[in-house]
Amino acid sequence: MVELEQVTKKFGGHLAVDQFDLQVPEGSIFGFIGPNGSGKTTTLRMILRIIEPDSGSIRVFGRAGHISANNAIGYLPEERGLYRKMTVLRQLVYFGRLKGMGGREARQAGLEWLERLELVPWKDKKLETLSKGMSQKIQFIATILARPRLLILDEPFSGLDPVNLEIIRTILLELQREGTTLIFSTHDMHTAEQLCDTICMIYKGKKVLDGTLDNIQATYGQDTLRMRYRDRTDLAASPLEGTSQVRNLGRFWEMRFQGEPHAILRKAVQRGQLDHFEVIHPSLHDIFVRIAQPGPEVTGEPEVEASGA
Amino acid sequence: MRKVLAVAFNEYRQVVLTKSFLLSLLFPVLIYGGMFAASIFFGDKTDLRDRVCVVDDRTGQLLEQLVEANEKRSRGSDVLTDGKQTGPRFVIQPYEGASGSDEKEQLIRLSDRVRSGEIFAFAIIGKDYLSLDGGDGDFIQYYSDSPTFGRLPDWLYRTVRNLVEEKRFDAAGYDRKEINRITSHNQLERLSLAELDDSGNIIEPQEENEVAAFLIPFGLVMLIFVSIQMTTPILLNSVIEEKMQRIAEVLLSSLTPFQLLWGKLFAGVGVGLTFSAVYIASLGFSLRYFEKLQWIPEGTFLWFFIFLVTGMLAFGSLFAGVSSACQDLRDSQNFAGTIILLLVAPMVLSIVTIESPDGPFATTLSMIPPFSVMAMMSRIAIPPGPPEWQVLLSLGLNLAFTALVVWASSRIFRIGILAQGKAPGWRELLRWVFRRG
User: In whole angstroms, what is the distance from residue B362 CA to residue A66 CA?
Assistant: First the structure.
């Protein structure tokens, strides 16, 4: 569906994307993660042909020469962009027409989506009179109005309350079932873990992770412990021997370990009233933090290249 | 093209359906429409009330003849048309008080009569008004509460002046009628040149109107100026809004920067044409109504729209290009000032080109874009107009200049529309024009 080969983009002296390869399978939900300034938006803009790469090739729908005006791509940017003084339905019709729809068709589709997202009473209101959450939903409708084959979503759930988040998530899964390929760019690792079939992480313009969540986690191995104490045992002040990077998650403690977990379990029991002890894979969040903020223990860690992408 | 038109239609609609734009369109309709309505509905409904004027003739020699002259006027075309009253009658009443006894009291008393509506005005003719040597009483004064009503004081002064001259000629032993006959002459008539039509017949020279000969070309130049001035800020505001509200990125995922720019340009041109068309139609309709269409040389309106479109495209794309590089309206003002200078200069210089439309200055200026848009327009609107080859050359140069500016602006636009941070200077913009990729 989307293939990037050795794509490089520079802005002045800054190397934004460096020889980047990417393959997004058709019909998948693809997570595209990375810290701020790592080159995510630049990559997405290149896929959309909003900007051109300096070198390398980009193929979308198997075609190298597609233009940004591709009607089959829907794009929801992180910073939402709608006309504040324009009424909701007119806005949807306009964006629909820009995706190649006829005026009547766009109006009909816009009304249907407004109905589904319970926004019909606001169809003739100017956008500036709507709440932020409503605007988010309008922008989402504008993105999917033309039923795109490829949806590129940059932080699609930010600013949404749990109810609306669930509605949007349901719609996205419906679209995927109908054959739409989804590329998510997000900082929300929990969402990425839950939704994405495949995940790619970009860091400083280079790919540092690519594969299914299981493959990525398998590559990192089971090097994490999760514990819960009934009392107020503090593991941060004096970490257990053989553990490092201890984090208090509230109800749980999480830490990396080296060596034999049974030996650590014995020591953990001696510290307090231990209720829970689990050897787990590192979470995606954990892996993200390890790559984006490498501590002394993990420096020099090899790049992970899991299969499945 | 469908997407370009979708942008154009959307932006055009956004502007044209605003109250301020509709009001700007209503202005000429109100002015010209008001004139027609006034002439049609009120033409035969002039205020026909009698205007009573008390005259204190302190010379004692003019009043009787003044009354006679007024009676003659009441039977003439100033008052009657085909036997029907179409103008107000004047009623000249002699002042019946003690003339010159207490002037202040006299003025107050007569003023009160005017204020009460009993009389319309009063006049005092000084006792020395007939004297050749002047004196304290060498005056004629007119008092009224209606300063805008000029017919009565004009008639009064003209009539009294004639009577005084007549009396002075008589006193000096001259025959007034003979002097009038000797000194009488017609006014100078200003006419256009004679021409032959296709059949070899002479086309009657047209009467020229000095005021119209200046106002029409200047008005057309002003209309070009205002149309471009109206259009360009619209482009500037819409580009800045799309950048500030982050709409540009959404738009560019659907169409290319070039398509977006052309959509905006079409909208801008559409707005400018709508605006100017209303004014031109109003002007054309008015001239036709008053049978003065000959004041405008043939083809002027067509050339007006052609040159206007080239001007709007050039200036519009320039505004869109530089505003795409700006983050907010304040940034854009630095650029806008320079561009507006390019627009104001030919408008000011048009006064020179109108005065001497076939002079070397006007001819040269009408060949240099972007000044040529207004300079050539002013020349075209003054009969007999420039040679056709000059108009075509000017248009060709304008089209080439417009194409160049649109190309350069689109190069700036494609980079600027996504650029963030500090606004670049002119030199940086020039680099964007030639940047690859």
Answer: 51
Angle between helices A162-177 and A132-144 (to 10 degrees): 0
Q: For domain A2-213, say whether CATH 3.30.565.10 is its number.
A: no
pLDDT band at A295 (very low <50, low <70, confident <90, very high): low
- Give the confidence band of B75 by pLDDT, cuts at 50, 70, 90: very high
Residue B193 has pLDDT above 80, yes or no: no
Question: Which pLDDT tens digit goes with each residue over B252-285?
Answer: 888 888 888 888 889 888 888 888 888 888 888 8
Range 278-307 of A in CB contact (< 8 A) with B: none
User: Which of B12, B249, B413 best probes binding to A when mutated, by most A CB atoms within 10 angstroms?
Assistant: B249
Structure token pair of residue A193: 């873990």
- The nearest CA of chain A is from the CA of B234 a distance in Å of 14
Q: Does ipTM top 0.85?
A: no
pLDDT tens, residue by residue, B16-67: 777 777 887 777 667 766 766 776 666 556 678 899 999 999 999 999 999 9
**Cβ count near A161 (within 10 Å):** 10
Q: Tens digits of per-residue pLDDT, B225-259?
A: 888 887 777 788 888 888 777 788 888 888 888 88
Q: Which residue in B has a C-alpha nearest to residue A10's C-alpha?
A: B437
The CA distance from A278 to A225, in Å, is: 6
- Residue A6 to chain B, least CA–CA distance (Å): 17
Question: How far apart, in whole angstroms, are the C-alpha atoms of residue B174 and residue B171?
Answer: 8
Strand runs labelled E in B87-134 = 90-94, 121-125
Strand bridging mode B140-144 / B121-125: antiparallel
Q: Do A98 and B7 touch (CB under 8 A)?
A: yes
**pLDDT tens sequence across A22-54:** 888 888 889 888 888 888 888 888 888 888 888
Q: Does A4 touch chain B (CB under 8 A)?
A: no
Which residue ranges make up each domain of chain B? 51-175, 209-434
Choose among B306, B344, B111, B116: nearest CA to B222.
Answer: B344
CB contact under 8 A, B3 and A83: no
Is the CB of A138 inside 8 Å of chain B's CB atoms?
no
Closest CA to A4 of A53, A57, A48: A57
- Three-state DSSP at A188 gives coil
Cβ of A94 within 8 Å of Cβ of B10? The answer is: yes
- In this structure, are strands A243-248 and A206-212 parallel, antiparallel, or unpaired? unpaired
- CB spacing of A99 vs B7 below 8 angstroms: no
Determine whether the interchain pair B2/A100 forms a contact, defined as Cβ–Cβ distance below 8 Å: yes
CATH assignment of B51-175? 3.40.190
Query: What Å distances lie between residue B318 and A280, B103, B328, B338, CA to CA?
Result: 61, 71, 17, 11
